[in-house]
User: What shape does this take?
Amino acid sequence: MEVEFAVLGEVRVRLDGQDLEIGHARQRSVLAVLLAEAGHKVTAAQLEDRVWGERAPRQARNALYSYLFRLRTALRDVAGFDIAHRNGGYVLQVDVETVDLHLFRRLLGQAHEAAEAQRALVLFDRALRLWRGVPFDELDSPWLAAMRDQLQKERYTAQLERHDVALNLGMHAELLAELTTLIAANPFDERLAGQHLLALYRCGRRAEALTRYRTFRARLVAEIGVEPGDHLRRLHQRMLASQVPPPPAAQRAEQNQEPVPRQLPAASPWFVARTRELGLLDKARKDAAGVVLVTGTGGSGKTSLALHWAHREAGRFPGGQLYVNLRGFDRVGKPLSPADVLHGFLEALGVPAEHVPAGPDARAALYRSLLARRRALVVLDNAYDADQVRPLLPGGADCLTVITSRERATDLIAQEGAVPVRLTVLEEIEAVSLLVRRLGPDRVTAEPDAVARLLAHSARLPLALAVVAGRAVANPAFPLSALAEELRDERARLDALEADGTTSSVRAVFSWSYRTLSPEAARLFRLLSLHPGPDASRFAAAALAGIDLSSTRTLLDELTRTHLVDEPRPGRFHSHDLLRVYAAELAEREDTDEERRTALHRCLDFYLHTGFAAERHLAPHWPPIGLATAQDHVPHLPLDDYRQAMHWLTTEHDTLLAATAAAVRAGLDVHAWQLPWVHSTYLSRRGHLVHRAESQRTALAAADRLDDDFARATSRQLLGRAEILLGDQDQALKNLRHALDLYTGLGDIIGTAITHFSLSSAYDMQQCHTRALLHANHALRLCREAGHQAWEAFTLTAIGWYHGKAGHHAQSLARCSEAKPLLDRIGDRDGRAHNLHCLARAHHNLGQYTEAVQGYRDSLALFQELGSPYLEATTLDHLGDALQAAGDPPGARDAWTRALEILDPLAHPATVEIESKLLDTSACR
Assistant: This one.
């Protein structure tokens, strides 16, 4: 079990590589304070002050106890972790080596004590790589702000100390880009200025170094009124006299008779974060992996990542650094041939042109022989495929090759053991950091809403963000909101992301990948832009294209190889927003309106018919609706049981919501009312009540456009049921009365019965128990008349519940007991779960706590099988009440805690009452 506690960035806890849920900002603040003071006692008063400062709420102490309890619960699986209560305070017991803040300080101490410069450099690098952003990011209190400032000063000092060590090792070329960026942000730091000047001088840029010194001195005198210190003035004098001594590493290089190639192009000064990917590259180097394959769509920053890492690690490869742009996806021309690349590499390694072998195999053999004696880094940028790079791979175990490509090249992973590093779009914090670095913090923080829109419209694609930042820099008077507005219209978005040169535009970069596709794959890429959801399955893609599943798989493989489409999870395919805009633009240009509409119709047919099959497993007791026959070439996805149905609905939840909206836009109103119907039970069972209500309002509007009374009645009834659960009983009653009139007019007995059942629920929520019983008895009579045993049993259970609410617990038990054999006979698990819950409630109210506890546990097991988190949590809450009444406080606390864990992510108001129960039993103390 590997655990990491991190505060040098966003506060987080990772267990075996997975982030743990540690709650909202205030709760994370409590953890941050304890982590900063790991092993030391912090009193409750100190915690309050450090978490809230002067803005502590009246109930701060109770809230604090609640946060501590939740943290213990959330981290109970972390070995060695505990928040111990000692002498009026709290001590976080944890291995400090697992806390990045304390590990950072320990590594710095070891670096200061290291006897060898190379060892010190490694330790400084390990320490600085722990940083992921601003400490305690997004947390706010005076104490945390002061701690944040202190830590950032420690980081800055460590960076300067690392620079001194690296300069002593002769790594001036690798440092120059970083030093240039840092001096712009810290224009009065003499130590940093000296490092920058020394790096410039040792890179052969003596005149620029002297000019920079004069500029720095003038700024210092004009704005602070002091002259540079002795160290900087002495360095200036040595530069004037050309007497700056070379570093020891450079002296050793001069004695080496073999040329040492340094071919890396300049790294981007605007590179940000990519912590995970840099970590994979670091691990590959440490593990002597030999080959790393960096892949991603055009504009994702593959070259920037490779060059940033290569410059940072160049000092570890004294045999040199070779670089070539293989032009695999250039706008014009062909990819470079391996033979031509080998010719250039051999010359860089000291082979005279006349001695370079003529044949490609002989060149590759000589190349491998020369690199066998070196520890070298080879960067093969923009590769077309595995065949292009394979002859360029060194044979020596001490060399590392970094390949960047839009091509997935899985055979390099399989045959050469390449370590895959896949780039997607930037994380939000990384994207903001990029804008801050380009535009400055003041301009970015002044317009947070505009920045959020820029990130959304650019899909957080590095190339797109670079274009946006370039426009903002070129137009400093433009508000960022104006740039965001230019990108708002999807149709014009790619036009707005045109850079000054066509090769830098987002559209141009995408086109280089698109033109390599087969015609069939190109068509599928275009049609995928019509898919309504965030990602598509192979079945949905086949429906769009109107082709068989096997052919679809082949075409999706082609699209994923070029990263025009990604497969983030097995069998799920998507493109980021800008690629979807590009694909939609191509579809409008190359496919007719009828072709696009037919493709979308097939796709919506797939979701409607598959959703209907899934709903039948969830709620077989609901009277089915009639579906139109699906179009030709719509694939059939078999769903054999409840588990498969729930899994499919969970996976396609967002897509089904989006499909309903797409049906409305396309004027497919039958789909627009029936898709919410097939989705309704799932939304209710999973607690997505707002989505359920919104989708039924969409369905009702479609039913009105169709002038279909059955559709109106069905949608109003489902909307009313959603409004009951949302607490809007007045609106629920209005919709249910409309539905009752419609069903009565249609002569639909079971529809009328179910609507009476729903009306009884609404009146029950208003505490109108007499009216609730009146409608429930109406429903019972109609269900028996129609011979519908499932709804007869549901109604009997409801009547039992209402009697219990009215205080008639013996009658409640009798009615629920009457329903039980019916439910056992028809085998409806949903009805049985509710019935068992109602029986348990009756036993509880009659003082029969043993029977109540068992009934709740039986009900809970069924709700867990059904995947209904809200009802599971409600049952746990009531189970806790029964256990408390039965004299089992530990069991009660456990049940309430489990209920809280479920309700917290749902932001459900019931959490307040449950927390109060926990506090009352001193569970948090």
About this structure: The two ends are 28 Å apart (CA to CA). Confidence is low (pLDDT under 50) at residues 252-256. The chain has 44 helices and 13 strands. The longest strand covers residues 377-383.
